[in-house]
Model the fold of this input.
Amino acid sequence: MARRRKSNSNDLAVGVIVILTIVTMLVNFLVSHWYWFFMIIAVVIFVSHNARKKKEGLWREQLRKTQTVQGILQEFQNNPYAFERYIADIFKSNGFYTKVTSSTNDGGKDIIMTKDGYRYVVEVKLYSPEHKVGREKIQKLHSAMIDSNANYAYFVTTSCFTVPAIEYASKYGICLVDGNELAVMVQQLEQKLHDSIK
Done:
């Protein structure tokens, strides 16, 4: 028993000496190379700031191009998955934490969101204005809402909804966003970003 205690205290002493040696070496390095250390930190801050500004600029430009249903269709006609990410970014800009699901086998939901402790599922459809969303798509979203234990659901489309789809959504508390409402959301977000720059 005495040997084990002595061994443990020796191990502890060695550990403390190793940690103190590493800390001393690090402090000596920083003191002798402080200029380069701060230069590297400054470069990292500068690059990350410029990358963020560039991303914000691209986002604002995309919002400018997509303020109408036709603009949205033109921007995303060849990439519906990019449209899903775009819708997720719109919700993210409105305070939601968003996650885009895989492009296949998404279980009837394209985006999973949370905000203020509530869970949301979102289905997104990039349809031409004359292609109305029917009740069966809303029923599928309702099933995804139940399967995901979500509190709420959104169905976002560039087209519009049939009367049975609207009635079903109303019955189960599913929020429907048609193409015109989506365009208004984009315009409001673009104005909000524009105002924040002033």
